[in-house]
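note to self — DONT lose this again. spent like an hour looking for the file last time. sequence + predicted structure for the chain T wanted, 684 res
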Amino acid sequence: MRATVDRITLEVVCEALVAVVREMRASIIRASYSSAIYELDDFSCALFDPQAQMVAQSEDHPGHVMPMPWSVKCAMEDFAGDIKPGDLILLNDAYRGGTHLNDVTLLYPVHDAGELTIFPSVRAHWADVGGMTPGSYSGLATSIFQEGLRIPPIKLYEDGRPNRAAHKLIEANMRLPDERTGDLEAMVGACRVAERRIRELFAKYGRDVVLVCIRENLDRSERRMRERIRALPDGVYVAEDYLEYYDEGRFDPVLMRLALTKRGDSIVADFAGSNPQVPGVVNSSLAVAGAGVFVALKSTLDPGGAVNSGVFRPIALKAPEASIVDVRPDAPAGAHGEVRKRAVSVMLGCLAQMVPDLVSGDLCGTSFPNSIGGRNRARDRSYVYVEVPAGGNGGFAEADGSSAYVNVDFGNIRSIHNAESIENEMPLLVERSALRTDTGGPGRRRGGLGMRRQVRLLDGEAVYSVLGDRAVIPPFGVGGAGSAGHLSVSIERGNSEHRFKTPGKVTGHRIRADDSVVMESAGGGGYGDPLEREPDLVRRDVIAGLVSLAQSRTAYGVVIGAGDAVDGAATARLRQELKAARVHLPVVVDERDPYEGIKGRHRTLRLSPASAQRIGAAEGDLIELLGRHPVPLRAWVKLDPAQQSSAPLDAFARQALGVDAGDSVELRRLDMPAAVRMPAQAAE
């Protein structure tokens, strides 16, 4: 006979489960060894049922917890019928529900009266898991074997006894084995805390009542999400965007495409047409790409509701196998955060067509993980520094985007690493943390700014690596808004500055004492036409140093005169001139394949030389097209003397922009770093 529960008991038990997760988090922060965990909060906790459904989480990292059901399912498949009390399962496999290899997952099955009931679980970022560079971040890796130790589901404890061979194998492949052991013990301790609290709940309410509460909570979460989906207009919505990949040093962007089909109270997210996987880091699993889909949908439609597997039930995921969104061995998968964030971007593109008032400009679009590894001679031990400088968030209908602040898919992770912790533990000096002027996408509501984080090496030598995106293709604005500022990294040595030929992706670059690593995060895209922004808000931004005088004129059409006063008449004239100078071309149907690339695929747009000249573009320049739908489409110029003064578009592009033959689209040229050349040009 199935137990029944009243509403009060249901709420109390469900909140108690969330409290269990919060206590797990507190335990890890107190006990972990790595500052990436106890300072940056780069870890997550959750509870799962025997069907691999997530039943509770807290202020956790969505990019961790949303793919975790895949990991739990894979572990249960591997140990079907062989999960006993006292077993602990460890894994980090990027092909089996993992994210990148640094995110190590511990599953702790709790039995009651011989029956498997709940899985407490922790996924924590280990600062180093081996591989070709300290920190295991390799922006230019070509195989997963270069990214670190890959751990399939293994029993780290069996019948309560530690598997010492597994422990030794793991420690032998990590640069800081004592730190990894400490973090692992913190994870185990947190799960033991969860087990005690779960048993207390069973004792107080009865196991059957607790399990019924879990089922009821999942079901009502599903109903709540279906109600919100049902309110959306039925239809098929499409969008595309890019990840930045380098093929032997040549820039070769890879394509992510999404078709979002909404029917009734369910959604199908299909990544058909996305790039086949490449021998570079910009691949990940469908679990990770799916996390981006869930984050964008949940935060848009129901930001205040619970996050559990019931919420995921109305959403089906599809993707081509062996693609950048459904990777297969042995392609690297280190840029999981960038793949997830790009899935958020294409979801924004689709959702903006459905509910334009509920979306924002694009997020900064990258996790931007940086690492420095070397030897601390004062302490006679190795160190690995990890930094993820936060970028900007997109502007939205009600307000400007937040600056240097974690994006919605990062949960409770800190915006920047604690300077005192860094300087106490490593031979590093944090020289600067400041907002980057003009990096917020111009709009009626401005995008948030990126930040400049500068760290100096004080002693010895070290190696620097970074695995970022949006260093070439900037975060987009919506509703006619402008793009945000790019991500940028460089090394300052004396009066010289070294910039990389592969912007955003660096592996093992050697630095020496007194070198400064400069990490500049991207901004967030704007919202709405920047010529409609209130002039006084632009004036305030200029005074605050968020917007330069030059950008106030060129992007916002606001003239600020003596005494920081807005010149109203000059502003009105300038705005009329800027609006009249916008370039529009009529749409014509052209179903030729618009994509080119080496291993990547990027959209090209055939333009006459005269049309390209009107927007100041040359062959291979990056441009964007704006149509009726709020999100632009990006393409690279392909000069065609036979082309008329028009914009030839295939069916996908016309659908993404919401235009048809005879309509017009606006064209804008976008800046790219000078070091980057397109594949066709580089091959000449």
